[in-house]
Write a structure and sequence with these properties.
The structure is a single chain. This protein is mainly α and 89 residues long. 67% of the residues lie in helices and 0% in strands.
Amino acid sequence: MAVFFASVLPQFAPERQGMLSALVALGLVFSALTFVWLALYAVVVARAGAFLRGSRVRRAIELSSGWVSRWPWKSAECTASPNVSPWSS
């Protein structure tokens, strides 16, 4: 971050004002925007987690994941005989 502030931000600082005060102001704006972004991201993730933990959604996820995890074992080659390899002729 120090390299970013030292190399990119000075081009946005006005020339007539003190360089240090302008860079501090730009750094504070950057920090505030970062805080707001991360706070909004945390709220969205919390709401998505609450939605996914809901009873209907959770049941649908568990049903689909259970079906997918058991699906390959229902093929004819695997259920024909437990002692016969599906690759034997």
